[in-house]
């Protein structure tokens, strides 16, 4: 927690907050002593000028105390709010640049809780720290010293009440502490169930699992409620116990104080002042115990936030930036995979092994393969969402690890497997691809992506896009995502299974449009697809199986030589289609099952 404080709090405002806190403590400690003098000297001896004089001093001291409190609160609030804002911003930024593996390791729900709930806990504790946490010990020690000066005998009352208070606080903390971490974990869990319920609501309904999901949420909700109730009840019990101890202490002080006054061993004013200090001592103790509960809870939050902030980046930018690709190359680039392998941290086997191939500007490489064969992993490696674990990926001879991610991403435009749209309008979504795009360029991209018709019909570029593009069909979402990819001027266009929700005719039109568009003709296009019809016109096709290349070449070549490719063809094309391809039918008849 202190590390976070050091990093996010500003020295001068914190110094001012503490300075005025000290002034407030001094004035608070001075007031009862002035009161005692006023009673003993002024009222006791009927000295009116003395009463006026001390009364004026009391007024000035009280005003000073009020002003100091005000300034302290101002700086404490400002600093803690600033800390919250900057911390939230940094956690969010870190998550935005997190590599895929780390993102999956944490999971979305805990990342949300850490950015919101945990940061708020820290924000609150720092506000308390700059006020109560430092004030309480100062007041405690100061009041004990002042009270001791007024009466040594009455101090014996604290010999009983302070150990009792300590016992109450320690017992309380021992019950509450272990439950604080559990509480944050349960908030994560409730977020997870809630998030899954929201995103999967249609699936849940279709499978008639509504009751099950409601029950699951109810259970998570109950667990959180139960733990929170136990913690808060335990913490709340402390207050009445402390109030009882405080009341008995006051009774004892008045009792023994009256005896001392009766024996002329103590003036009346000292008893009044002693009572005030006694209240301050016990109140400070109560505040300290409240802080003692708050700090470990915030410590848990601090650890959770630091886990995110200090997560080591796996994908690193080079210390010295290689020349940006866009400026170093006029038009032509070559993408080379040299014995590339990739393994996920926890995985038993490599997701990609020993991949070598080359694609040049203007060419289209299609990647086909079964589920889990490594297609998306390959695309992620090109965009450096992850780095290869062996071998290298080169752009015109430069290892992409020598390019900063920012530079690389300037030349790469991609559509992911799941079309992601942001809430806003069609125009704002296209601005993601090209922030200075003109309307004309937007319509051109929409037209290439075969999305212009429905966008025009439904309201044009100002057409609203709901969260996750919920107001569009799957195919429409994909077309809009493709339009966003195409509007970006890039040297590499990556489409990760982006055509899967399109019908055959639209798929064909879209590929034809990209291949004949002036802006995209010169670029390298890499298309991941499951459909033979999508890949067969590509210049080269890479067939993946269990992360290995089992075929590389043109459609005609693979149809003759690659059993895995033939198998995919056989599963997707009709006898007539295979017949039309002639060569394919003849080849299959030799070895594979009859068509
Ligand atoms: N975050 C991850 N951690 C561990 N293993 C992973 C992770 N993501 C993917 N894998 C594994 O890596 C392999 C390749 O996955 P990938 O997503 O690249 O396949 P794919 O060919 O794109 O599949 P699909 O066609 O179903 O999208 C799979 O065996 C998968 O289980």
Automatic annotation (TrEMBL):
Classification via PROSITE patterns: ABC_TM1F, ABC_TRANSPORTER_1, ABC_TRANSPORTER_2
Keyword Lipoprotein applies: no
PANTHER family, per database record: ATP-BINDING CASSETTE SUB-FAMILY B MEMBER 10, MITOCHONDRIAL, ATP-DEPENDENT PERMEASE MDL1, MITOCHONDRIAL
Domain called ABC transporter: residue spans: 335-571
Residue span(s) of domain ABC transmembrane type-1: 15-297
Alphabetical UniProt keywords: ATP-binding, Cell membrane, Membrane, Nucleotide-binding, Transmembrane, Transmembrane helix, Transport
GO CC annotations, alphabetized: plasma membrane
Protein's name in the database: ATP-binding cassette domain-containing protein
Subcellular location, record wording: Cell membrane
InterPro entries listed in its UniProt record: AAA+_ATPase, ABC1_TM_dom, ABC1_TM_sf, ABC_transporter-like_ATP-bd, ABC_transporter-like_CS, P-loop_NTPase, Type_1_exporter
Lineage: Bacteria, Bacillati, Bacillota, Bacilli, Lactobacillales
């Amino acid at each position: 927690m202190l590390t976070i404080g050091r990093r996010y709090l500003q020295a001068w405002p914190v110094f001012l907050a503490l300075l005025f806190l000290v002034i407030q403590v001094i004035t608070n400690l001075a007031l009862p002593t002035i009161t005692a003098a006023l009673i003993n000297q002024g009222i006791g001896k009927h000295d009116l000028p003395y009463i006026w004089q001390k009364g004026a001093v009391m007024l000035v001291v009280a005003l000073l105390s009020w002003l100091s409190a005000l300034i302290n609160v101002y700086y404490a609030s400002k600093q803690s709010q600033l800390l919250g804002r900057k911390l939230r911003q940094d956690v969010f930024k870190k998550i935005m640049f997190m590599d895929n593996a780390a993102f999956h390791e944490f999971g979305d729900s805990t990342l949300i809780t850490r950015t919101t709930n945990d940061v708020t806990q820290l924000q609150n504790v720092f506000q308390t720290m700059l006020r109560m946490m430092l004030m309480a010990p100062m007041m405690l020690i100061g009041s004990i010293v002042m009270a001791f000066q007024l009466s040594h005998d009455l101090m014996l009352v604290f010999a009983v009440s302070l150990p009792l208070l300590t016992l109450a606080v320690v017992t309380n903390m021992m019950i509450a502490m272990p439950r604080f971490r559990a509480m944050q974990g349960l908030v994560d869990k409730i977020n997870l169930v809630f998030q899954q319920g929201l995103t999967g609501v249609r699936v849940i309904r279709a499978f008639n699992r509504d009751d099950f999901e409601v029950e699951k949420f109810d259970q998570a909700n109950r667990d959180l409620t139960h733990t929170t109730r136990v913690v808060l009840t335990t913490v709340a019990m402390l207050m009445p116990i402390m109030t009882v101890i405080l009341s008995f202490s006051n009774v004892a002080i008045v009792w023994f104080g009256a005896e001392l006054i009766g024996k002329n061993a103590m003036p009346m004013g000292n008893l009044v002042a002693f009572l005030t200090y006694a209240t301050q001592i016990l109140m400070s103790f109560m505040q300290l115990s409240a802080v003692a509960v708050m700090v470990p809870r915030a410590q848990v939050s601090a650890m959770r936030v630091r886990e995110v902030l200090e997560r080591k980046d796996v994908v690193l930018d080079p210390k010295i930036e290689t020349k940006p690709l866009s400026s170093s190359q006029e038009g032509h680039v070559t993408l080379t995979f040299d014995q590339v392998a990739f393994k996920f941290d926890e995985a038993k086997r490599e997701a990609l092994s020993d991949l070598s191939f080359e694609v040049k500007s203007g060419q289209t490489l299609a990647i086909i393969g079964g589920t889990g064969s490594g297609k998306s992993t390959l695309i992620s490696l090109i965009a450096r969402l992850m780095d290869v674990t062996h071998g290298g990926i080169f752009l015109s001879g430069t290892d992409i690890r020598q390019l900063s991610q920012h530079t690389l991403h300037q030349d790469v435009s991609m559509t992911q497997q799941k079309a992601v749209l942001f809430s806003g309008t069609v125009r704002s979504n296209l601005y993601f691809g090209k922030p200075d795009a003109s309307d004309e360029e937007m319509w051109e991209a929409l037209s290439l992506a075969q999305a212009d018709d429905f966008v025009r019909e439904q309201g044009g570029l100002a057409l609203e896009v709901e969260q996750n593009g919920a107001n569009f069909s799957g195919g429409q979402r994909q077309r809009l995502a493709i339009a966003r990819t195409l509007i970006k001027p890039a040297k590499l266009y990556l489409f990760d299974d982006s055509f899967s929700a399109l019908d055959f005719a639209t798929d064909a039109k879209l590929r034809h449009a990209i291949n004949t568009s002036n802006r995209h003709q010169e670029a390298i296009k890499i298309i991941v697809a499951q459909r033979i019809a999508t890949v067969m016109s590509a210049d080269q096709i890479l067939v993946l199986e269990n992360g290995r290349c089992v075929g590389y070449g043109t459609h005609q070549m693979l149809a003759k030589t690659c059993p895995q490719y033939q198998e995919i063809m056989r599963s997707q094309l009709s006898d007539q289609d295979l017949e039309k391809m002639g060569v394919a039918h003849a080849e299959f008849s030799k070895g594979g099952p009859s068509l």
